[in-house]
Design brief:
Elements (H helix, E strand, L loop, with lengths): L1 E8 L4 E7 L2 E6 L4 E6 L5 E5 L16 E7 L2 E6 L8 E6 L5 E5 L1 H11 L8 E7 L2 E6 L9 E5 L5 E5 L4 E2 L2 E2 L2 E7 L3 E8 L2 E7 L6 E8 L4 E10 L2 E8 L7 E8 L1
Antiparallel strand pairs: 1-22, 2-3, 3-4, 4-5, 6-7, 7-8, 8-9, 10-11, 11-12, 12-13, 14-15, 16-17, 17-18, 18-19, 20-21, 21-22
């Protein structure tokens, strides 16, 4: 069951979110801020991630923050790598609220070399840490449609596994986000305007176990685990509505 959870004003193009201790942290691909929403007090805080941040940045200049994941007491935020100006990583400390900015051009170039994903095709949309390795989700929306998982070990050994995703009305789906659930499997969310699919992917062997179409018209770009409820699980999702209206709707999905 999918339903509206809340609406946030002041930004749009939400691309990823993390739920942590009754706070919702949201990024947008056209914004230079990290948004922190307190679910108890309804207070929305804007944390600048770059110098002179804007809530809406024109497409040609945006840093394209598409990926957010939690590691220990930090949020790790990645640019998509789809262009040279979209190769940044921000580490946000959940205690001190301090940020650390790293240029990822060399790292992304190494990914391109070792995975044979072309510079034009590279488009990272999700990430999670599993057993000390970083798993990055490559969105295959280029000509070669290379959906897959890029695995980066602690020693920075890089490998790539291409994954065939289901189709919606004859159009192949592509990755948009991932989270780790119960430390044994990851859940990915994926979609275009034709709809969105929620699936279960085994984080150990990177094999798809199950997929469920959850929408026929919405383009969800991020999800986070919310809570268990008896024999069901609840997730929160954010949607990129492809408009310049500075408003973001967060949805709750129960399965």
């Amino acid at each position: 069951m999918l339903q509206v959870f809340l609406t946030l004003s002041g930004f749009s193009a939400a691309s990823g979110l993390v739920y942590h201790q009754k706070h919702l942290f949201v990024i947008a691909d056209n914004s230079g801020f990290l948004y922190q929403y307190n679910l108890k007090t309804n207070l929305l805080i804007h944390h600048p991630l770059i110098t002179n941040p804007q809530h809406f940045t024109p497409k040609q200049h945006k840093l394209d923050f598409e990926v957010i994941t939690k590691k220990g007491n930090e949020l790790h935020i990645f640019s998509s790598g789809s262009k040279k100006n979209r190769c940044q990583k921000i580490i946000f400390n959940l205690n001190s609220k301090e940020t650390q900015n790293t240029d990822l051009n060399n790292f992304y170039e190494k990914i391109i070399r070792e995975t044979k994903i072309s510079e034009e095709e590279l488009n990272l949309e999700g990430a999670l840490y599993y057993k000390r390795s970083l798993l990055l989700l490559q969105r295959g929306n280029g000509k070669k449609a290379k959906n897959g998982i890029i695995k980066v070990t602690p020693s920075e050994r890089i490998s790539f596994k291409q994954i065939n995703l289901p189709q919606i009305n004859g159009v192949s789906a592509s990755f948009t986000d991932a989270i780790l659930v119960k430390d044994s499997q990851s859940t990915y969310l994926d979609g275009k305007v034709l709809g969105s699919i929620l699936g279960i992917l085994d984080a150990k062997n990177l094999e798809i176990e199950k997929t469920i179409q959850i929408s026929t018209h919405q383009k969800f770009e991020g999800l986070t685990f919310y809570k268990n409820k008896k024999d069901k699980m609840q997730f929160l999702l954010c949607e990129d509505n492809d408009t310049e209206q500075l408003e973001t709707t967060i949805y709750k999905l129960e399965i």
